[in-house]
Amino acid sequence: MSVLRAQGLGKKYKRKWALSGCSLDIEPGHVSGLVGPNGAGKSTLLNIASGMLEPTTGTIEVCGGTPGSGPEQLAKVGYVAQNTPVYSNLSIEDHLRLGQHLNPNWDEAVARTRVQRLGLDPRQHAGKLSGGQRAQLALTIGIAKRPELLLLDEPVAALDPLARREFLQDLMEAVAEHGLSVVMSSHLVADLERVCDQLVVLVDSQVRISGDVEQLLAVHHRLTGPRRDVDTLPVDQQVVSAKHTDRQTTVVVRTEEPILDPAWTVAQLSLEDLVLEYMANPVAARPALEVLR
């Protein structure tokens, strides 16, 4: 069973579509990185998945149910929104009591242990915490809720490098210990590379690629050689992008077959290269005959 499945999902605000025609299937047991340019619909997708928004079109199923459909469904999903919102006038102790009151599967031992390990004073008000400490408090609540799926929307964007590292280390420990499925959006590809085993690239509300990170890197190649028309390439090579000079052609292709043409110099892509190629080229230079898995 998929932990998140969307088909033709769309959300419209007045005359503007924030998300349109989005289809996605995420299996449980993975940390999935959701990446794309501003306005691609990442936050809208996560808000719909959490039950904070209702879709205008299409369908979505999260952890076997409809987002926000009732207490049982809400208990399955943890959500940390952008800027890791906490209540500035409430103490850490107040946050933990509120979490226990609102969440039927609340794990008090996990919450207390994390607060103690992080060196946080339960009496301190959230408004007095640093950005990293607020992020850790929000993550603590999300983990102690004991959800099946944890949704994180740009959770480390405002943190300094040390706080980001600590947050991501704690996230991975929680995933390993509690078997969480995680979908995390971020502009920081290097952070996604450290923690994610699955990747989803969302551009103009459309899922351009999704799948296992290692597999995606293995089937993408940058080819450089004498100038040629990309339509002359083998049909199994999906051309993601193509650039030409007077004498040279550089293409990024996706294929599961070996590159046999000796005229090409073949190079692998980094994860950041891969993401940027798809973000910069919303439509493939030459579509594949079929979707490669």
From TrEMBL:
Signal peptide: none annotated. Residues 4-229 form the ABC transporter domain. Keywords: ATP-binding, Nucleotide-binding, Transport. The keyword Nucleotide-binding applies. The keyword Nucleotide-binding applies. GO terms for molecular function: ATP binding; ATP hydrolysis activity. InterPro entries: AAA+_ATPase (IPR003593), ABC_transporter-like_ATP-bd (IPR003439), ABC_Transporter_VariousFunc (IPR051782), P-loop_NTPase (IPR027417). PANTHER family: ABC TRANSPORTER ATP-BINDING PROTEIN ALBC-RELATED (PTHR42939). This is ABC-2 type transport system ATP-binding protein. It comes from Actinophytocola oryzae.
